[in-house]
């Protein structure tokens, strides 16, 4: 019988952020999600960790393995759960062997020849599996009857799952669905952020906005994304839009980019006639400046390995591949199958 790891609900995020800070940038997605403006009181989101508020890990206790999680399971069709385990730092950032940058000689993702390593020892993997098994059981049994959509569906949607964690999860429970992405990390400190937009001049008939000017544009934006999102969520997220203005016609949306609930660059798009002019880099760079104003000076993006254009864009903004990340759907009712 594998001994369980106890998880504790936290009423505030202060202790969690203090513990996670030395684990940046690996913990950046979770840190941003903990602080998201989407965490309204009426959503009854869950902050939890493998330690109580009264006894957090200390900097001196580096051998102590811990797990922190955020959950908003009322978002039934969107990402719900972010997880960080301290063993993720065993994959250093930057990588000792850098992920190969895209060049004109790389014509497909298969040509980069890079395999992400799992440096955990057998004993470390066993500890991680104990933490994750207990975490899933905690999510399965924890009751939040006042949350919207209660009782929750048994399927949970995990976001930004580090490859160290997803590898261990695959040995615990079957996945309903899993997609893999490259995790690009950006240093968004105001002092370190490269002049992402200083070399780009946009035409005078294009104007930058921090809102969506026309309601019908929401449907257009949603139609260009492979990741399901609710219109209400999209409106609430920080974003930048570029509109074409003309005295003879209504404003036309030509480019946009959003910061996700975890401050990841997402839904970046430029309509066909306006591509190749640096507009994607311009709107993404504007949003990275917003990340630089947050307490966590690391931005990030999830990019398909096969999307060389997006990879080149991330590199032009100073992005570096740190690890492989996954979005995973798990049916908690299937936990017993792997006990």
UniProtKB/TrEMBL annotation:
Residue spans crossing the bilayer: none
GO MF terms, alphabetically ordered: acyltransferase activity, transferring groups other than amino-acyl groups
Gene3D superfamilies named in the record: 3.40.630.30
Coiled coil: none
Domain GCN5-related N-acetyltransferase Rv2170-like: 250-327
A Pfam family recorded for this sequence: FR47
Protein name per its UniProtKB record: GCN5-related N-acetyltransferase Rv2170-like domain-containing protein
Source species: Lipomyces starkeyi NRRL Y-11557
């Amino acid at each position: 019988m594998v001994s369980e790891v106890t998880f504790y609900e936290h009423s505030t995020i202060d202790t969690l952020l203090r513990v996670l800070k030395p684990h940046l940038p690996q913990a950046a997605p979770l840190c941003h999600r903990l602080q998201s403006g989407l965490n309204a009181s009426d959503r009854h989101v869950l902050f939890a960790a493998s330690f109580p508020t009264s006894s957090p890990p200390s900097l001196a206790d580096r051998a102590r393995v811990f797990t922190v999680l955020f959950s908003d399971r009322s978002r039934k069709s969107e990402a719900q759960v972010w997880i960080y385990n301290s063993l993720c730092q065993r994959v250093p950032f930057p990588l000792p062997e850098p992920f190969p940058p895209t060049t004109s000689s790389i014509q497909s993702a298969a040509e980069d020849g890079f395999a992400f390593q799992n440096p955990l020892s057998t004993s470390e993997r066993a500890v991680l599996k104990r933490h994750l098994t207990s975490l899933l059981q905690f999510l399965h049994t924890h009751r939040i009857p006042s949350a919207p959509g209660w009782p929750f569906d048994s399927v949970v949607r995990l976001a930004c799952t580090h490859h160290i964690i997803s590898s261990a999860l695959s040995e615990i429970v079957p996945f309903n669905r899993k997609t893999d992405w490259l995790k690009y990390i950006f240093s968004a400190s105001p002092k370190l952020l490269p002049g992402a937009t200083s070399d780009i001049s946009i035409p005078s008939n294009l104007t930058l906005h921090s809102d969506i000017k026309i309601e019908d544009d929401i449907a257009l934006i949603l139609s260009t994304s492979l990741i399901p999102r609710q219109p209400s969520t999209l409106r609430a997220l920080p974003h930048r839009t570029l509109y074409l203005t003309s005295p003879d016609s209504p404003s036309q949306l030509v480019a946009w980019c959003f910061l996700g609930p975890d401050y990841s660059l997402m839904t970046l798009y430029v309509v066909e006639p306006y591509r190749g002019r640096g507009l994607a880099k311009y709107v993404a760079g504007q949003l990275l400046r917003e990340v630089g104003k947050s307490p966590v000076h690391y931005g990030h993006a999830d990019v398909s390995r096969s999307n060389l254009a997006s990879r080149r864009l991330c590199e032009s903004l100073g992005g570096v591949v740190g690890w492989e990340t996954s979005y995973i759907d798990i049916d908690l009712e299937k936990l017993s199958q792997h006990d």
